[in-house]
Amino acid sequence: MKILVTIKQVPDTATQVKIAADGKSIDTTGVTWIVSPYDEFAVEEALRIKEKRGQGEVVAVSLGPDRVKEALRSCLAMGCDRAIHLNDPAWSAADTLATARALAAVIKQEEPALVLCGRQAIDDDMGAVTAQLAEILGWPCAYWIMEEAIDADGKSVRAARQVEGGLEVFDLPLPAVLAAQKGLNEPRYPTLKGIMGAKKKEIKDVKASDLGAAAEPPQLSIVGLQALPPRPPGRIIQGDVPTAVKELVRALREDAKAI
Amino acid sequence: MPNAFWCIVEDDRNGLPKKVMAEVIGEASRLAPGKVEAVWLTDKASEAGLKQLAEWGATRVLLLEHAALAPYRSEVWVAAAAELAGKEAPKAIFAPVTSRQREFVARLAARLGVGLAADSVGFALESDSLVATRPVYAGKLLSKVTWAKSPWVATLRPNVFRPAEGQPGKTAPVERPAVAAAAAQMKFVERREEVSTGLPELTEAETVISGGRGMKGPENYVILEDLGRVIGAAVGASRAAVDAGWRPHRFQIGQTGRTISPKLYLGFGVSGAIQHLAGMRTSKVIVAINKDPEAPIFKIADFGIVADLFEVVPELTKEFKKLLEK
Taking CA atoms, what residue in A is nearest to B275? Predict the structure, then answer.
């Protein structure tokens, strides 16, 4: 069974982000890059499916500039068999829809039985590509999955999605698209052997022309980035606990009108 | 009606719209007075629910009622909504951020070939275009985005927008277009209900209590739940507490958990790591209780007490009880 995992390289949560001179993007100087955490759940799940079935291929795919190779390399070190890098300046302003269209074109060429994505990337938090892939491909889709099981003959997948108040379980015929939620699994760390082996695995570069895709203007574009408005200075309430708590309750009621 | 602002109804699966719809309809009414249409996909609407939508300010209700629309499946919903959108040509399509709307409107935007601004916290009309504001990079920056063409599709973060004030007795015409129910590929198997804490849902609550590593163990969350019952608050946890196995993941607040924006946030033994702040920094009033005066959460807190939470929580529960019994 061939499984394709879409990943995104994003700034590490703890890294400082500064607005670049164009006012629309971030200054990438000194930024530490990681594979978006939800995508790691997707990679881990794909590897587990392959291991459980005893055969198959896991392909990691990402769209972005040259630096994205490093993220794909770490997926290969985790155990993915090969990687595809959608690397073309034509996609530099790609919104979720343009990204989904490019990824869908690769998926049509690769014909995997299952596509696993992370629930959302932690840079722009849009959380849209999985659903948009499903739409473009005409495949069924389950969001925020907490567990999955593929049936023995590889024809369908049973997935439990997280919703407000519980889990909803569905059977989806394959091929299908699933979006991984935290709690699905605990991603492995690459082993030294995995890291060494990753250097020999293929990362194929793909240009927009290879997909027969015309560069399209984004449907959603960034007008500008801005820093958060500063919060008013806070107040540390002094005194022993009973006194401080009384004052806190009074302030929440009378000053902040929050209760 | 062409150029209307659609508000996709999130309901309680029992025929009533959720309270968050007052915020969605309220914001749509501010942007497009008199052109706000509630679009409700459900297997069963109630008269009370239809009345509620009108009282919040919907000027027309489009009810897509069909057994195939529950439980929610994006493939079925998108087919029905896209067909209606083709006939009605709305200017905007708004929905609240919930697990299903996150997926549904993304898929709908792809079907319609338009942009999506997810998890928006503000809107402004500039000449004839809409600009949405949304937090990015763990909430460290705000991004302003705009659409190349309409309909402008967006989801709205709960508890951020001012809710419409209900106008008792206000009515709106209800239309029931025929539903083109696409054959579903997904087959429903079962729903597993969570054990209810009896407290509000995390993302919907107006007050949220959060317990971090300072809670010291799973057994101590009961004191936060006691406090929660007194003030009607949801109880969540930091990633440290969830990763330690003290609380299930559904209670996690932060970047890899739930994003919340309550009127009042109370953090107990929460240090305030960036990934936690990403999920709660748009809260209106932030209170931090921590033994460590250097805890980063004090930097964004409106009120702080540097003390042992195990002394503060019982005292706070007692004082709130006194206040609310008055």
Answer: A13
**Residue A162, beta-bridge partner list:** A167
Range list of β-strands (E), B82-161: 92-96, 116-120, 122-126, 129-136, 141-147, 152-156
Q: To 5 degrees, how large is the angle CA B243–CA B249–CA B253?
A: 90
Do B255 and A13 count as a contact with CB atoms less than 8 A apart? yes
Q: CA–CA separation, A253 vs A244, rounded Å?
A: 14
Instruction: Identify the pLDDT of residue B197.
Output: 82
Q: Is the pLDDT confidence value at B274 over 80? A: yes
B-chain CB neighbours of A163 within 8 Å are 99-100
Interface size, chain A vs chain B, as Cβ–Cβ contacts under 8 Å = 255
ipTM comes to: 0.96
CB contact (8 A) between residue A26 and residue B100: no
In chain A, which ranges are E strands?
A: 2-7, 9-11, 18-19, 26-27, 33-35, 57-63, 82-86, 114-118, 141-150, 156-163, 166-173, 176-180, 203-206, 220-227, 235-236
Is any Cβ of chain A less than 8 angstroms from the Cβ of B229?
Answer: no
Residue A233: closest C-alpha in chain B: B302
Tens-digit pLDDT profile for residues B62-86: 999 999 999 999 999 999 999 999 9
Binary contact (B320, A249; C-beta < 8 A): yes
pLDDT band for A184, please (50, 70, 90 cuts).
Answer: very high
B267 in contact with chain A, both atoms CB, cutoff 8 A? no
- Chain A CB contacts of B299 under 8 Å are 234
Q: Which residue of A lies nearest to B306 if distances are taken between CA atoms? A: A236
**Domain range annotation of chain A:** 2-211, 228-259
Tokens of B171: 């009515």
Is B206 touching A (CB cutoff 8 A)? Answer: no
Q: Is A259 within 8 Å of B75 when comparing Cβ atoms?
A: no
Q: Which of A108, A152, A102, A160 is nearest to A129 (CA)?
A: A102
Which CATH number applies to B207-325?
A: 3.40.50.1220
Residue B34 tokens, joined: 């008199």
Q: Which of A36, A168, A172, A253 has the highest number of chain B CBs within 10 A, making it the mutation to test binding with B?
A: A168
A225 with B305: Cβ contact below 8 A: no
Residue of B99, B285, B287 lying closest to A162 (CB–CB): B99
- List of long-range contacts for B242-247, beta carbons under 8 Å, 24+ apart: B244/B213, B245/B218, B246/B215, B246/B217, B246/B218, B246/B221, B247/B211, B247/B218, B247/B221
**CATH 2.60.130.10 holds for B5-175:** no
Task: Give the Cα separation of B259 and B111 in Å (integer).
Answer: 27
Q: In this predicted model, what pLDDT tens digit does every residue of A30-81 receive, in sequence order?
A: 999 999 999 999 999 999 999 999 999 999 999 999 999 999 999 999 999 9
Q: For A2-211, CATH number?
A: 3.40.50.620
| Domains B5-175 and B207-325 in one fold | yes
pLDDT at B28 over 90: yes
Q: Is this model's pTM higher than 0.90 or not?
A: yes
